[in-house]
C-alpha cells in the first residue's frame, strides 16, 4: 500500500501555506501485515446506534492552542472495509518507531492522516467526532473562518526520477545528449492508474509512458518513457497520471489554506549539455 502525506507538495504552492516544508518526499510504499479492523469490531460488538470509529494515537502536541493527542475517526462503513488493517509489521519486520510501533491503523486509498500511528485506543461512537484534527485540521479551506470540506482519498499523482545530475544551487538537471529512459511511479486512492503521460516541453505536448507492474490495487505503479532530445538546450519535463475513474493531475493545483493534496504535475528542468 502507498502512503502519501496530505501535505506532500505544500511547499510548492504559492503563497506557501504555513506548515511543514514538504516538497515531494512524503510518500512511500510498503507491505503491511496486520489483522482486519472489521474482525476486531465484530468480536467486540457494535451497537445499532454506532456511526463512527475513533482512533487515538499516543503522540501529543499543541495545535490550535490546544494540548491534544492525535485523534481521527472513520465512518463505520469505511472502518469495516475488508482491507483496513490494524498493522503490526512493515515489510516483514515489526513496525519501526517512526511508523507507529507497536500498532497502527492502515487505511488504503486515504491520505496518511487517516492511518493513525502509535494506537492507544479505539472507540465506537454514536455521533460524529468533532475533535481538532477532524473538525479543523485536514480540511480544504480558503480562509480560517471556513468550515471546509474534509480531506479523504488520495487524488492521482505521478513522480519521476529526474534524469541526469543536479546543479547544486538550482537543482536543475544536466544530461548528456543521447537516448534516455525516464522512470517514475504513479498512484491514486480512487482506483488503478490507467495512464501516465510525459511532456518534454512544459506541457504543450504529451506522449504516453509504458505502465509497469503494480503490487496491489492500493500501491503505486511503475512507468517508463523513452526520450531522445531533438536539440540541445533547456527542456521542461512533466508527468501526469489519470486514474480509472477519470481523475487527472492538473497543470496547476488549486490553492488551499492547509496546502493539502497538491497533485499538480511535477516539473523538472533538464539542460542537454553539448561540449
Explain what the structure shows.
This protein has 275 residues and is mainly β. It folds into 2 domains: 31-150, Oxidoreductase, molybdopterin-binding domain (Sulfite Oxidase, Chain A, domain 2, Alpha-Beta Complex); 157-272, Immunoglobulin-like (Sandwich), CATH 2.60.40. Helix content is 6%, strand content 40%. The chain is built from 3 helices and 21 strands. The protein has helices at 37-44, 76-79, 132-135, and strands spanning 2-4, 27-29, 32-36, 52-63, 66-75, 85-90, 93-94, 104-106, 119-125, 139-140, 149-150, 157-160, 165-166, 173-175, 180-187, 193-199, 207-208, 210-214, 221-227, 233-243, 266-272. The strands form 6 sheets. A 6-stranded mixed β-sheet has the order 13-14-21-20-16-17, with no helix packed on it. Strands 3, 6, 7 and 8 form a 4-stranded antiparallel β-sheet that branches. A hairpin with a 2-residue loop joins strand 4 and strand 5. It starts with a strand and ends with a strand.
Secondary structure topology:
Elements: E1 2-4, E2 27-29, E3 32-36, H1 37-44, E4 52-63, E5 66-75, H2 76-79, E6 85-90, E7 93-94, E8 104-106, E9 119-125, H3 132-135, E10 139-140, E11 149-150, E12 157-160, E13 165-166, E14 173-175, E15 180-187, E16 193-199, E17 207-208, E18 210-214, E19 221-227, E20 233-243, E21 266-272
Parallel strand pairs: 14-21
Antiparallel strand pairs: 1-2, 3-6, 4-5, 4-9, 6-7, 6-8, 10-11, 12-15, 13-14, 15-19, 16-17, 16-20, 18-19, 20-21
Amino acid at each position: 500500500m502507498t502512503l502519501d502525506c496530505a501535505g506532500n507538495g505544500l511547499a510548492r504552492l504559492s503563497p506557501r501555506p504555513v506548515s511543514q516544508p514538504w516538497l515531494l518526499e512524503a510518500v512511500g510504499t510498503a507491505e503491511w501485515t496486520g489483522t482486519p479492523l472489521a474482525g476486531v469490531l465484530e468480536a467486540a460488538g457494535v451497537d445499532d446506534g454506532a456511526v463512527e470509529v475513533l482512533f487515538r494515537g499516543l503522540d501529543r502536541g499543541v495545535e490550535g492552542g490546544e494540548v491534544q493527542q492525535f485523534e481521527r475517526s472513520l465512518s463505520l462503513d469505511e472502518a469495516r472495509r475488508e482491507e483496513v488493517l490494524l498493522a503490526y509489521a512493515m515489510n516483514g519486520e515489526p513496525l519501526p518507531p517512526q511508523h507507529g510501533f507497536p500498532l497502527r491503523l492502515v487505511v488504503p486509498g486515504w491520505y496518511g492522516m487517516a492511518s493513525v500511528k502509535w494506537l492507544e485506543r479505539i472507540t465506537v461512537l454514536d455521533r460524529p467526532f468533532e475533535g481538532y484534527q477532524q473538525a479543523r485540521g485536514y480540511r480544504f479551506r480558503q480562509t480560517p473562518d471556513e468550515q471546509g470540506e474534509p480531506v479523504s482519498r488520495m487524488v492521482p499523482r505521478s513522480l519521476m526520477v529526474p534524469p541526469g545530475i543536479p546543479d547544486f544551487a538550482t537543482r536543475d538537471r544536466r544530461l548528456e545528449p543521447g537516448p534516455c529512459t525516464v522512470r517514475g511511479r504513479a498512484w491514486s486512492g480512487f482506483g488503478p492508474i490507467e495512464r501516465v503521460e510525459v511532456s518534454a516541453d512544459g506541457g504543450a505536448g504529451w506522449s504516453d509512458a509504458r505502465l509497469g507492474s503494480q503490487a496491489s490495487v492500493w500501491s503505486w505503479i511503475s512507468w517508463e518513457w523513452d526520450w531522445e532530445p531533438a536539440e540541445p538546450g533547456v527542456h521542461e519535463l512533466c508527468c501526469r497520471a489519470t486514474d480509472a475513474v477519470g481523475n487527472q493531475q492538473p497543470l496547476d493545483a488549486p490553492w488551499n489554506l492547509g496546502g493539502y493534496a497538491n497533485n499538480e504535475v511535477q516539473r523538472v528542468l533538464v539542460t542537454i549539455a553539448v561540449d
